[in-house]
Amino acid sequence: MTDPQSGFQAMQVSDLAEVLAIEQAAYPVPWSKGNFIDSLAAGYPALVLRDQQGLMLGYLLALKGPDEMHLLNLALLPEQQGRGLARLMLDELCRLSRQHCCDSLWLEVRQSNLRARRFYQRYGFEEVGMRPAYYPVLQGQREDAVLMNLTLAGDPA
Q1: Taking 60 as the threshold, does the pLDDT of residue 135 lie above it?
Q2: Enclosing domain of residue 147
Q3: In the chain, pLDDT over 70 holds for what percent of residues?
Q4: Is residue 143 flagged as an active site residue?
Q5: Has 134 been annotated as catalytic?
Q6: What backbone phi and psi angles, to 5 degrees, belong to 125?
Q7: How many CB atoms lie within 10 A of CB 102?
């Protein structure tokens, strides 16, 4: 079992080869390298999670708004899923969000991704709406997104 004790680090452009490998393994329509470069250049909060040996286990990328954080992308190596690492990553994003005086966390998830929707609901997110034809799929089709929200409370520490 891989141990994430080395923890979180700010995502750097030099991490993008590893990030893209995880992205392509995790998603049917992955983000491009340009999407990540643009997000980093814009200063979006972005973290990678590494184990003690330096292996990247996953990453997250968010967008800070005036009083909210919006999770744009979260992915783990497929073989690391189901070990509690996504929860660890969300815990860190919530801590970071509170530190930036955000009172809510938003995300979209593919309507067909029932595993992720259940995970986010167990974490405390509520399904609050739909975004029609939000996600691209193969052959030019689009898939609806479920909009989810988590109200943040507590100490930013």
Answers
A1: yes
A2: 7-151
A3: 94
A4: no
A5: no
A6: -70, 150
A7: 22
